[in-house]
Amino acid sequence: MPVSKMESKIKVSEVLIDALEYMKKFRDQVFVIKLGGEVMVDDGVLDAVAQDIILLNYVNIKPVIIHGGGNEISKAMERLGKKAHFVKGLRVTDEETMDIVQMVLIGKVNSKIVASINKNGGNAVGLSGKSAKLFLSEKRKSDVDLGFVGDIKEVNSDLVSVLLENNYIPVVSPVGIAEDGTSYNINADTAAAKLAVSLGASKFMILTSVDGVWDKNKNVIEKMNSKDAEKLIDSGVAKEGMIPKLRACIQAVGQGVPAAHIIRGDRHRLLEEIFTAKGTGTMIKAK
Amino acid sequence: MPVSKMESKIKVSEVLIDALEYMKKFRDQVFVIKLGGEVMVDDGVLDAVAQDIILLNYVNIKPVIIHGGGNEISKAMERLGKKAHFVKGLRVTDEETMDIVQMVLIGKVNSKIVASINKNGGNAVGLSGKSAKLFLSEKRKSDVDLGFVGDIKEVNSDLVSVLLENNYIPVVSPVGIAEDGTSYNINADTAAAKLAVSLGASKFMILTSVDGVWDKNKNVIEKMNSKDAEKLIDSGVAKEGMIPKLRACIQAVGQGVPAAHIIRGDRHRLLEEIFTAKGTGTMIKAK
Amino acid sequence: MPVSKMESKIKVSEVLIDALEYMKKFRDQVFVIKLGGEVMVDDGVLDAVAQDIILLNYVNIKPVIIHGGGNEISKAMERLGKKAHFVKGLRVTDEETMDIVQMVLIGKVNSKIVASINKNGGNAVGLSGKSAKLFLSEKRKSDVDLGFVGDIKEVNSDLVSVLLENNYIPVVSPVGIAEDGTSYNINADTAAAKLAVSLGASKFMILTSVDGVWDKNKNVIEKMNSKDAEKLIDSGVAKEGMIPKLRACIQAVGQGVPAAHIIRGDRHRLLEEIFTAKGTGTMIKAK
Amino acid sequence: MPVSKMESKIKVSEVLIDALEYMKKFRDQVFVIKLGGEVMVDDGVLDAVAQDIILLNYVNIKPVIIHGGGNEISKAMERLGKKAHFVKGLRVTDEETMDIVQMVLIGKVNSKIVASINKNGGNAVGLSGKSAKLFLSEKRKSDVDLGFVGDIKEVNSDLVSVLLENNYIPVVSPVGIAEDGTSYNINADTAAAKLAVSLGASKFMILTSVDGVWDKNKNVIEKMNSKDAEKLIDSGVAKEGMIPKLRACIQAVGQGVPAAHIIRGDRHRLLEEIFTAKGTGTMIKAK
Amino acid sequence: MPVSKMESKIKVSEVLIDALEYMKKFRDQVFVIKLGGEVMVDDGVLDAVAQDIILLNYVNIKPVIIHGGGNEISKAMERLGKKAHFVKGLRVTDEETMDIVQMVLIGKVNSKIVASINKNGGNAVGLSGKSAKLFLSEKRKSDVDLGFVGDIKEVNSDLVSVLLENNYIPVVSPVGIAEDGTSYNINADTAAAKLAVSLGASKFMILTSVDGVWDKNKNVIEKMNSKDAEKLIDSGVAKEGMIPKLRACIQAVGQGVPAAHIIRGDRHRLLEEIFTAKGTGTMIKAK
Amino acid sequence: MPVSKMESKIKVSEVLIDALEYMKKFRDQVFVIKLGGEVMVDDGVLDAVAQDIILLNYVNIKPVIIHGGGNEISKAMERLGKKAHFVKGLRVTDEETMDIVQMVLIGKVNSKIVASINKNGGNAVGLSGKSAKLFLSEKRKSDVDLGFVGDIKEVNSDLVSVLLENNYIPVVSPVGIAEDGTSYNINADTAAAKLAVSLGASKFMILTSVDGVWDKNKNVIEKMNSKDAEKLIDSGVAKEGMIPKLRACIQAVGQGVPAAHIIRGDRHRLLEEIFTAKGTGTMIKAK
Fold first, then answer.
1. What is the pLDDT of residues F152-208, one digit of tens each?
2. Binning pLDDT at 50, 70 and 90, where does residue B43 land?
3. What does the alpha-carbon distance between residue A179 and residue A154 come to, in Å, rounded to a whole number?
4. The pairing of beta strand F282-285 with beta strand F259-264
5. D19 contacts E268? CB cut-off 8 A
6. Which of A112, C58, C172, E93 is deepest in the core (most CB within 10 A)?
7. Other Cβ atoms closer than 10 A to F234
8. Touching check for D10 and chain E: CB below 8 Å?
9. CA atoms within 13 A on the CB side of F96
């Protein structure tokens, strides 16, 4: 056997044996993985992420997917000639907007993720947070009427558990339902964190468009605790979209999820984080 | 006790005791119920139908809902300034149209039914036919390219069975998925019939905008068999939208579903059909 | 459709939809229902009560029946020319009397109820309190020897639970058994209350020969609490047979059964109480 | 250790080790045991038989008890001054007689057996053939009206199986129920044989007042087959009460029960038959 | 029937009925039984003990066997010309010795017990304490290096429980395994006691070469408590091999095992102890 | 990110994603893996093989290990000064030799494999073929008395199935047991093949000291069918130890195992065969 070939063979088994350590560590645990809108832009990336998710399922990790989709909503509204209306920086969601939110999130984004996982050999099931009152919500209290913007009152995750027990991969849209049946637009990062807590997840992972959380010098922070994360927000180093992500991570680890991660939603970064010692992106622990 | 009051009391128990006969007859059986677009137009009607469905669930009948939504799709296309294109009477479904089909069916119509059932105290779970490859489909063979119009190759109803065993009420959108992940627009009546066959349902019920199937004198036919139904189509008495409905019923009873029904999608007609001797609409049996 | 017919149809579904609220409220809960001897006098009434019980079973309420039978015992003794003997108002139960008690309660009254439920399509199982030591009893302590009059020491309701899990309707005779195998005559109302407590029942219902509990003006009291009930006894407004019934209700609600009811054992009064807002008879709550 | 003591000790273990062979052979098998009225005359004998039954239960044999009670019925009728009426040798059972039959069988004889087993530490459950339509019956066809004399149409032994799975000892009274709820007096030996067949029993044992089946010289026949049994009846050697017992055995082994036994209902004869090589009474095999 | 024969029959049932009391008492309980090397010397004795163990299994007692084997190890070492080396009375176990220990205990002694049980109709499964880390061990701390002498750190008895639930008879060799895979020689009496505690056994029985524990006059003590046992050791009345046996018993009862027994490993002594009022050997209770 | 690093990361995920295809293919399937004596010579190799086996277990493949050990037996006999005795090329196994066989296989070789798997984080359980009569055997019929050489009569693999269901890794020694308890030396390759058939395994893999099966030019044959294998034996190309290995493979695939493999028992060759397209060694299919 030529040396080069032997080497490559040794590498195959090396990778697998290295990965075995993490399979042992995470067996039968729930990982809640939030796919940011960025992941869905490139079909190749989505397929790669789908394969990663299926792999988790095959090594007895229980992945639960939840997605965002702000960009897609904006595009759809534009396409319909509908203008966004903001009050004190918050988007006012009127009935027609709420209809668009649901159509885009449940009918388009979720549907696309389910298709990608299933074509790659997984068994995904798309769900909105309205099914079985998964995200029981209420209208957000606010000085001005924001319309159909809601907050989660209660997570009823039994349905998700039933699906996991039967080896399905749940894919959840962040839409809430009130007792009276009203649909509410809810924040995807918060919903993901609350779902992770409710399911007793051992990891809460946010896939997004940056390599991780930056320090003031724009270097990715590999590991930090809740307090560090809070300081990053307070000091203004963390900005814009990173703030709700950090807050969701702080919430998750503060309520018992052992680790939260913010990583780039790129090809196989999930595997890199989960199955290698080096990892990728930023990990946030309780303390 | 005044006579009038006593009478009314006797009636309450009379109704319940009469209904008991049907509870005995249908216990633990699956009913596949197709809600035509008409049911969804009036919120009051939808809520009434939702209550009927929940009642079935409470007396141990296992309702599975599948819906259409052609009108809603047309409205959405119009709103987007998109023109329908037909070849030999068949709508050509290009990629953008297919996106709209999914958004409307899964994100709007299904979502609305789920909300109505859940606000009335049921435990509905919305699903598309893409989840767990429920409706595994393929492109329709045709002389001209119809785009994303598909036919069901295989019904994988395990997911629906898992939900029924856990006492959820599945609400299914008629969207198919191919092995390669492509989404297909599939006929809702056919999908409903195939789902009924796959689940071993004991009733297949179509709720629509007429009182039942008409004979040539425009009187509703109370009961007929498959052959009668075929004759109605062949003779031209059954027309337009009624033809695919009759074909779906013929298919269902031909493959073992004991009875198919076409009834008006009005307040509590489901209960009237299921829990009274008189019934409503048209019943079709195998022979 | 003629107006009158339409109205009647609306009523059918109205009754069912109204009943749905109560099905939701009581799903999977145990109701212990004590049938007084009066219920068994008229076969038509017994059959109507049997239908009510079966209906409960069909909407996932778990009825457990326990019966009395003093009148039947008296008749049998008379027929045998046996004289009742009383000491301080309490019937002395000698061995032959105890034999008659068992034969009448288990062999006749219980047997008749089982037959009525089973002929109406239910799945009743007749049991005495001796089976699997359901009512483990001991001789009543008393100044004078009352013979085979006993008190329940312990309720072993596992057998009843096994039957309920398998969807049978248990019908229990109030006969106790001591550790040494001796049979004891036990009070049916007390046995019923203790059984309700042991099973964690959510309702304890006594069907008897009056419309409910009377206030001093002989009007039926619709609702009261334990204290009110005690006052009725202490003040002498409640009399004779009503006293042990009230005491059993007080005992049941005092030990965690949410509601006790005293209602007339007439056609379909059970359904009227359980499935209508108005209800019937008297309800007793803890406070 | 003195020789005598050592011997006695060796005997204890010898008996147990000998019995082990039979425990191995019969583990998890159902034995249907019919107790003739004779067994119930002497409380000491009944207690001894009860202990035997409990022992079977403890070594994982599943005993199902069914009893007769003709003598007790006759005594009760006499006590009530009611005369038996015969047409062509068959007792005419009028309604009052049927009431007495039920009271005596279910309320007295069954009740006594249950008490004996339970006081000896078993977990017996008394049942009539009316419960869960165990013995679904119909009126016997006959030239003259025999009243409430019935034949078993169908054995519904699910209830008995549920009790066995939960480790209870069922004690069954031979009373049948028709679809319309009518109670019928049915032959205990036949009922026992049919129950054995329905439960897939591996032994059908009749405990009676003689040592076994006699040959023409009045010696007990240790073993015979169905044909031998038929010859005994045809030739007139078997007489009176032995005839229906033999017919029941022939029926049982003819429908798949491996062995039927007729043995004296005396202290611990059951154990002697089951746990010793020598056995007791008469064994009947299919051929 | 001649008197002598009848008597013998009465004795069979007497023995069984007497044994029934103990079957009731011990049903579904775990007995951990340690077989000393002496039991294995005589094949007849081993077979008799095997039958006793099988009998326990047939009457729903769950026997778990653990064995010693010092003599066999010594013989094997001798056969190999290997000299034992002692430091302060403790055997130094070098690697070759540890190999011999494992070969003899697992490959010979355990194997022989399994064969004996299985040939007598039981379902024995041989296990070492290394399987599924049953006896997770560590090197014994000591002034001088004793080599592969270990102490149990943790008992992982799930494997044994799985086997018991599936009705197998586990036979365990006292060999421990460290986290790093090293095998350790562990004390059999201690291992047995720890296993009994871990399994929640209701009896811990040591079968050995003497009739029981002697008092200072060399009479067997029938019953004593932990304190008595400690005094026997402290006062020097208990000597040599009896000391670790007593310490194991003290440990077992001190941690919740209701009774420990030291009895002669002779034919059917197990049955004598378990199924007779008189018993045999010495019983030790907590206090 | 430097190119080199990115590449290495891509490789990690590439390997895992490639492996995913095989995880999908083999999920929940049983692989019977025979470890030749050669695997056990080098501790590093054994540990590497143990890791491979654990990895299989973690990706839901159910590995069952069975081992040989001829060399170790020979060494032990030599150490004991015991001469091998052959008749017509077959080793005569006297009682002492059989003792050595058991001690070496069960007490040493099996024990070492169990230790290696468990120290690497698996949950191995060592078993001999005597446990629960896994390999029920009989003396080999032969002209001359070969002593304790046996053939398998029946494989009772329930015990192995119970262990697999509970996620243990069974490690089996090829020792048989006769009905009378006699232990027999059985051929490991044959035992492995029969076990694979009995368990419905989807792969039967022999790990040995060569790279695979050679053709006449000493090149490894990558793939062949049963007939090819037979020709290799008949033509004399396959020699010595390869012959029984080929026969075992022929037997396994002839009785329904889809594929048999002969591969070198080297570091991670198992993974190379199972998780790469290229594979290693020789694969034998039915035709």
1. 999 999 999 999 999 999 999 999 999 999 999 999 999 999 999 999 999 999 999
2. confident
3. 11
4. antiparallel
5. no
6. C172
7. 9
8. yes
9. 10
Cβ within 8 Å, pair F79-E80: yes
Give the separation between CA D220 and CA D214, rounded to whole angstroms.
5
Q: Are C23 and C16 in contact (CB under 8 A)?
A: no
> Which residues of chain C lie closer than 8 angstroms to B271, CB-CB?
12-13, 16-17
Residue C4, pLDDT > 60, answer: no
C170 interface with D at CB cutoff 8 Å: no
- Residues across chain A: 287
The complex's ipTM works out to 0.94
Across F65-86, average pLDDT: 88
Instruction: Name the least confident of C68-77, C207-216, F160-169.
Output: C68-77
CB contact under 8 A, E126 and F125: no
Please provide residue B236's backbone torsions phi and psi, each rounded to the nearest 5 degrees: 85, 0
CB of F159 within 8 Å of a chain E CB? The answer is: yes
Q: Does C6 touch chain B (CB under 8 A)?
A: no
CB-based contact F125 E183, cutoff 8 Å: no
Q: What proportion of chain C, given as a percentage, has pLDDT over 70?
A: 95
CB contacts, 8 Å: A131 with chain B: 114, 118, 124-126
Residues D65 and D126: beta-carbon distance below 8 Å:
no
pTM over the 0.90 mark: yes
Residues whose CB is less than 8 angstroms from the CB of residue E226 and which lie 6 or more positions away in sequence, other chains included: E250, E253, E254, E284, E285, E286, E287
Measured distance CA(E179)–CA(E137) in Å, rounded: 8
Residues 6 or more apart whose Cβ sits within 8 Å of residue F284: F223, F224, F225, F226, F228, F229, F246, F249, F250, F253, F259, F260, F261, F262
C189 CA: distance to closest CA in chain D (Å) = 20
D55 touches chain E (CB under 8 A): yes
Q: State residue E2's pLDDT score.
A: 44
**Helix and strand numbers, DSSP H then E, in chain C:** 10, 14
Rounded CA-CA distance A64/A57 in Å is 10
Question: What one-letter code names the amino acid at D265?
Answer: G
Structure tokens at C164: 């309920």
Q: What is the DSSP letter of C278?
A: S
Determine the Cα–Cα distance for residues C210 and C262; give it in Å rounded to an integer. 9
**Cross-chain Cβ contact F121/A276 below 8 Å:** no
Whether F40 contacts F46, CB under 8 Å: yes
Q: Which residues of D touch E54 (CB under 8 A)?
A: 20
Chain D CB contacts of E17 under 8 Å are: 51-52, 55, 268, 271
User: CA-based Rg of chain B, rounded to a whole angstrom?
Assistant: 19
Alpha helices in C3-69 (DSSP H): 3-26, 43-58
pLDDT confidence band for D12 (50 / 70 / 90): confident
Could you tell me the pLDDT band of residue D124, with boundaries at 50, 70 and 90?
very high
Q: How far apart are CA A65 and CA A31, in angstroms?
A: 8
CATH assignment, C26-285:
3.40.1160.10
* pLDDT at residue E4 in the model: 45
Give the residue from A16, A7, A6, A17 showing the smallest Cα distance to F211: A6
Report helix angle D43-58 to E3-26, nearest 10. Answer: 50
Range with the poorest average pLDDT among B200-214, C80-94, D232-246, F200-214? C80-94
Q: Is the dihedral of CA D49, D52, D57, D58 positive or negative?
A: positive
Residue E163: which pLDDT band, with cuts at 50, 70 and 90? very high
Domain residue limits, chain A: 26-285
Contact check, Cβ <8 Å, B20/C58: yes
Sign, CA torsion A189/A191/A194/A200: negative
Residue in C closest to B9 by C-alpha: C272
Q: To probe the interface with B, which of A103, A157, A162 has the most B CB atoms within 10 Å?
A: A103
Give the total residue count for chain E. Answer: 287
Which chain C residues are Cβ-neighbours of D123 within 8 angstroms? 132-133
